[in-house]
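Weekly modeling sync, notes
Attendees: S.R. (lead), two postdocs, one rotation student

Agenda item 3: backlog of single-chain predictions. S.R. asked that every request posted to the team notebook include the full sequence so nobody has to chase files. The rotation student volunteered to paste the first one in as an example of the format we agreed on. Action items at the bottom.

Example entry:
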Amino acid sequence: MTSTIEKSTHHARSISLPSSISHPLTLQVEEQLCRLRSSELATTSSSSISHNLASLKDLYECVDDVLQLSLSRQSLSGRVLDGSLILLDVCGTVRDTLSQMKQSLQDLQSSLRRGCSESGVAVNLCAYMTSRKKGIKVIKKCIADIKKMGKTSAPYDKDNNMINILLEMETITQAVFESLLSYMIGAKAGSKQSKLSLVSKFKRSKSCNADVKDIKPLEELEMTIQGFEDGLELLFRPMIKFRVSLLNILNQL
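Predicted structure, as returned to the notebook:
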């Protein structure tokens, strides 16, 4: 998976908005693109992933405003329309999956804190592991969808630089999402294992009696999931607006 992300990042389009488009928003778009180009898109750090999600939100908000200034129905690429729908679906699906995993994790922590019987904790542990198993299946489907996008990348449009900006944004979004999805399924970075795999130790434990050292990793895991969920929620809104703007342009008379 790491090589896939690196490949996506390596081929990220580096385009500048034409100086002929005179508007302060264009500078903001270029600044956001530069920030993401220079960031570690293939990161396996939860804090860096959250930072990249926030930067993506800002980029989508800026680009949506510029669309109204510089994109016409005649120049709108079908590739951009299709890609926006796939990425929007991935964002919403992953956000919902994280929410479900977080809820089952909170139930597990609650049973540990209350000092429930071993059988009681086992029930909540089983529920969490089931939720995580279903989540991983969904995540792998999202990864496959993103990979398909990479195989059908549209070429540069020498006559429309705004289209190239949108294609670069799409490529960067793919790379950020892939790093997030890899982290969620417990991919390893060197010798360090994702925190999402820490809960597996309870599966091997003969006793489910909780102490501080048992609950703390789960609390850290919950905070990580919450951070990703919040980032995706904030990103989802401007992605919807961006998609609607594209459709409005397409439907122009």
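Discussion: group reviewed the output briefly. The chain has a mean pLDDT of 77.
Action items: rotation student to repeat for the remaining queue; S.R. to check formatting next week.
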